[in-house]
Amino acid sequence: LLTAPPARGQQPGRWRPPPPQSPLEKVAAQEGLSLAQLAGKWFLVGMASRCSYLAEHSYQLEATAVTVTIGDGQSLAVSTFRKLDGICWEIRQRYLPTQAHGRFLLKGRGYGGKVDMVVGETDHSTYAILYYQKGRSISVKLYGRTSQVSDAIKDKFEERIRAVGLSEDVTYYFPTYGFCDSADEFHILDGELQI
Fold it and tell me: What is the reported pTM?
């Protein structure tokens, strides 16, 4: 029957659990990550996400290529080339380094617009598995230096997506042909890419 009085400002019987851990906090960044070796051209091979837009429009997936350059030795300048309605677009984004190696932040517009990104795994020359989190929603992308990767790499990707609570039914593989290499000046967007 002996109980301590409630702390000042706290109502009796009201215990607040700590905030839940963000899914991305459980993901380890690639050890020995070399940004210089990460630079260059990549092809989006697959993606796992609970994004409802992606689920509803998965039949419209377009071949997507990405060029990564390293700005100021630490940030990632990412140009994504993809077709929208048959026209090649370039979407430019800048991922800023955070305190932790291999973790980056894309500042978005408005509340909840930021995207956290972790380079989870890469051998720099064949594949890269990147994790993205916006709000409480996580997605995982598999990139290859070529538009097709080995079954062993796909298996590894599918293991990684299961580890963060995603599954094969929200995994999409992208076309391996019909890539854009460039976009004219009228089809360049700076900022967020929804998919």
Answer: 0.84
